[in-house]
Design a protein that fits this description.
The chain has four helices and 18 strands. A hairpin with a 3-residue loop joins strand 15 and strand 16.
Length: 322
Amino acid sequence: MQESPAEGPPGASKFAKGWHLISWSSDLQPGGVLPLRYFGRDYVLYRGEDGTPVLLDAHCPHLGAHLGYGGRVEGTDIICPFHAWRFGSSGRCTEVPYAKRIPPRAAVGAYPVREHSGMILGYFDPEGAEPEYEVPPIEEIDDPAWTALQQAQIEIATHPREVIENIADLAHFMPVHNTLIDDFKVVIDGPRATQHSLGRGHNLKGEPIPVVSVATYHGPAIQFTRLQWAYDMVLINAHIPIEENKLLLRFGVILKAGVGVTLPPEVLEAHVAAARNGYFEDVAIWENKRWRDQPIFADGDGPIGEVRKWYSSFFPDATAAE
C-alpha cells in the first residue's frame, strides 16, 4: 500500500499519476541503495537481501537524515545512517535500537514497485491510490533469439507532455526524421495509447526500406515500440520528471539476431545508435520550443488534441496537464 507521507509532494498535481521507470534492474544489486530525485522530491530505492526492490520517501522521520546516503540494507530493511532506525518495505519503522518502544508515527511513505524486463517501475499518485493498470512484461527480453538489453539515458529540459505529444504528431516525421509516412493512426484504449505507422526510411547504408512501427504508451510515461526495420527491434522509451520542467529520458533497445547468432559489436551499436538518435532528434526541438495551450492546427497534423485529452486523464483534474 502506498502510504500518505506526512508532507505531500510539492506541486503534486503538476505530475501525471501512473507507473514510471525509476531504475534499470542492472543498476541495483542485492543490498544496494540508490538515492533518487523525481517529481521535485527525494526518494530512496534499495534492494533487500531477498532481491526485492523497495521504494520509500528518502528522509528519516526522526531527524531528517537521507536514507539513500549511507543507509545500509539488512534483510529486507534499510537502516538510517544517522541513528540506525530501521524501516521495512511498508515504510514503517521496525526498530529503534536504543529505545524501548517505536514511536507510533515513525514511518516514511512507501510506493508500489514492479520489476520485469530489465526495469524497476514505481507507481506514483499524489492521492496515494493503488495502481489502476499494469505495464506488461516485454516477452522478447527472455527470448534467446534477441540481443541483450542496451541502455542509454539523458536529462532534458522539457515537460513530459512534449514527449507524449510526439506519438500523435504525424507532420513532424519528414522534417525531423526524414521519414515518409504512408499510413498512420493512433488508437486509445483506457490507459494505453498506441501509434501504428507504416513509413519509408533508410537502412545504415542509406538504402530506402519500409519501416513498420507499433508504439504503445502503457500509461503516461512508459512506451514500448516494436519496429520492423533492418532487424526487428523492441524499443523502450521511458521518461520521468525530475523537476517540473526537467526530466530523465531512458532508452533501451533489443534486436532479433537469431538463436546462437552474435552480432558484431559495431553492427549492434550502429543499430542502437540509429534508433536512439531518432529520439535525440526530437530532444533538440523539445528543449527549445514553447508550449501552446491552444495551437493553430492544420489538416494533416495528426490527432494531437485526442492525445492531449488522454494524457490529461492521468492528472487529478483535466487542467493539470495544461
